[in-house]
Amino acid sequence: IFTRLLMGCIKATGTGIGSDLRVGEWRKTLFFFLCFQSSIRASRGTIGGYFLAGRSMTWWPIGASLMSSNVGSGLFIGLAGTGAAGGLAVGGFEWNATWALLALGWIFVPVYIAAGVVTMPEYLQKRFGGQRIQIYMSVLSLVLYIFTKISTDIFSGALFIQISLGWNLYLSTVVLLAVTAVYTIAGGLTAVIYTDALQTLIMVLGALVLMFIGFEKVGWYEGLQEKYSTAIPKIIVPNTTCHLPRADAFHLFRDPVTGDIPWPGLIFGLSVLALWCWCTDQVIVQRSLSAKNLSHAKGGSVLGGYLKIFPMFFIVMPGMISRALYPDEVGCVDPDICRRVCGAAVGCSNIAYPKLVIELMPNGLRGLMIAVMMAALMSSLTSIFNSSSTLFVIDIWQRIRRQASEQELMIVGRVFILILVVISILWIPIIQSANSGKLFDYIQSITSYLAPPITALFILAIFCKRINESGAFWGLMVGLAVGLVRMIIEFIYSTPSCGEEDRRPAVLKDLHYLYFALILCVLTAIVIVLISLCTPPIPEEKSQLLLAIRGSTWEREILIAQCTSKPAEGGREESHLDDNTHFFGPPLAAAKPPCWKMLYLWFCGLSTSPTPTLSQEERAALERRLTSIEEKPLWKTVCNVNAILLLTINVFLWAYFG
């Protein structure tokens, strides 16, 4: 139905490429069949089944989902655009992720699993006690999702569709968001992860096809080096050099002062952002927490690390190819010309990837690439929608409604996704008017202002036992205040166009956002440590979970709360075991409801069956299974060997393109 709707819209617009999309019809049919199957088979009637896929996922869909959750349409547009504007250095953002992914599997995930948590703010609540850090983290994460994930993915996806198909921007966005929300709401994390795996395959194959066509067009890598270096638009701004490609375009490591991406920032500042994105961000970590055991979580990290090698070749380099072939459009510098080409006076590098698709892809394959970009958009949005609803339900709604039933929690999670869809649609005009010409820089700069304090807190929470709640909270507040000051200054002083005088303050003009991220992380860590040392430590009786290095071995230290649990309102005793039973307990048989009600219950993932009562022994066994980080020696060795091989390849690539 969705495919026919798209075909009808294309024919109605008279774009003349409706036949191209028939290549994508079988893909969409398979895609929605997989969504439907995973929605039926998924454990959707419990909180754990909906939000953590019943903790039954294997390594390959986890690794594919880690890739596709991060590589959305925003990354296609942003990476290719920044590659067109500045060269290979932006690909270092992808290769840096390999190290963070392995840190996720070997350091962070064992702690999260042992803590038995569903969300990252929940871990901080267990580690420090209190509620203000957990609520702050949940709200900040949702804000980051809206400003750096949902809005940018929607804008970039709509930009691609508008350029390639000539669709109305709002109609195409509403249709895509509606379909995305439907299968996210109906399926839960199992549907999201399996469809992410399919989307990853489609994205990689389609992008590789375009990469080979582009390289053949420019004369492979040697031809790209020659043509990119001379990719100068016909109309330039006199007495300026902004029309010239960078002399260091084919090098990763650039001057620490004059480089557009300075090498110390690329190595150290970017690592701060990478640890936040891959080790503490709910969208990413939720995939690893759905693994059936720690070995599968590690295997997913390794596969994700291998997949992150490829965007340099099938996204960044095609962006450079696009500028080499079409310098007048992609490399425009005259504000009037740029405004006519893409609507942005500061440059049109964002159109590099869709321009390449429209100009180079033959009939049929062009439809495949359109399907790839739709897949990227919907894949990224499904991940964000599901993880956002998890944060809201677990960390915010349960604070408001402590006695909420499981049915209420499931309904609220799905309704919140609908609210996100509405907000996303309303945000489109703002994103459209705020186009700065470099989408990827916008994403990374906003992240640099808000995420480093979170990175500092999680590192200290895991490795430093002395850190307490007061230090953690006020460290976050100081980091947030400093980051907001920089972000507000950047919104006030926009980037000048070519030939315009740069009137921005020195703190904005001379301090790269990657340097700022590193400084902000260190500043937050210092504040956290100082305040923690000046205030009483967390009592031994409080629940904590951290990872300490003792000699050459990793030792997991768990301090379990000794205080007795108090009855909540209504006489219900709160306990972690009860929560896990609530999350994963299978429903009992019940009388069959009417057909209309069965359809409603299926869509919402609800059941009228009562939850079974487990004995103390069964509850203890369930708790041990859900928090176990034991591994079989064989698979532990396999994961370790593959991790070492992956790091070896990664270091070689850094050295070769450095």
From TrEMBL:
GO terms for molecular function: D-glucose:sodium symporter activity. It is found in: Membrane. The chain crosses the membrane at residues 74-93, 99-118, 139-163, 169-194, 201-220, 261-279, 300-321, 368-397, 409-430, 442-464, 471-493, 513-534, 634-657. This is Solute carrier family 5 member 9. Gene3D superfamilies: Sodium/glucose cotransporter. Keywords: Glycoprotein, Ion transport, Membrane, Sodium, Sodium transport, Transmembrane, Transmembrane helix, Transport. It comes from Aquila chrysaetos chrysaetos. Belongs to the sodium:solute symporter (SSF) (TC 2.A.21) family. GO terms for cellular component: plasma membrane. PROSITE patterns: NA_SOLUT_SYMP_1, NA_SOLUT_SYMP_2, NA_SOLUT_SYMP_3. Pfam families: SSF (PF00474). NCBIfam families: sss. InterPro entries: Na/Glc_symporter_sf, Na/solute_symporter, Na/solute_symporter_CS. It comes from the Eukaryota. It is a multi-pass membrane protein.
